Amino acid sequence: MLWSADRPLTWGDFDAVAPAWAEQGNWVASPDLVMNWTASYAAKRSGSVYIAAVTSLTITCAVDSSGSWAIASRVTAGALHHEQLHFDLYEVYHRLLEMSLRPLTAQAATGQGANQALDNLLVTTGNAILARAQAAELQFDKDSANGTNLAAQATWEARIASYLENPAAAP
Predict the structure, then answer these.
(1) Exposure string (b/e) for 32-43, b if CB count within 10 Å is 16 or more?
(2) Which residues on adjacent β-strands are paired with residue 35?
(3) For 144-158, how does the pLDDT look when each residue is reduced to its tens digit (9 = 90+)?
(4) Whole-angstrom distance, CA of residue 151 vs CA of residue 148
(5) Which of 65, 121, 135, 141 is 20 to 30 A from 33, alpha carbon to alpha carbon?
(6) What pTM did the predictor assign?
(7) How far is it, in rounded angstroms, from Cα 165 to Cα 122?
């Protein structure tokens, strides 16, 4: 399911069987958050160099229901809200990827060199943003004690709402 402000998560989006280790701990659920991106680019001659630029960019932010699980006896509205905040935080980094990757360019003496340089820049930048997303997700769980510290979770909820408006401000 792709992220949409108009379509929040439901427990029906969690189709996988919970792993045994989760049942033995105090876990409630885990959404399988997926971020994929592909870019096309082309190099054009500009004077004595070639400049490669992104010609198309597709980024998806989704929850894969086949990899998302919940322990039915533990689900609550509060737990679902916590998982929605994870999805919303991931959407922040989807938007950050969009605004960071689309304007990238690279130049080189040949078209192939410019394309290779841009490919390297796209991969490096994309991976760095995805690493930031993963770190933010872990920090959110740590600070909110996996949704049990409601005051900390409320602070994060406000941050996430702000980051959705201004992804560049995200950690």
Answers:
(1) bbebebebebeb
(2) 61
(3) 999 999 999 999 999
(4) 9
(5) 121
(6) 0.94
(7) 23
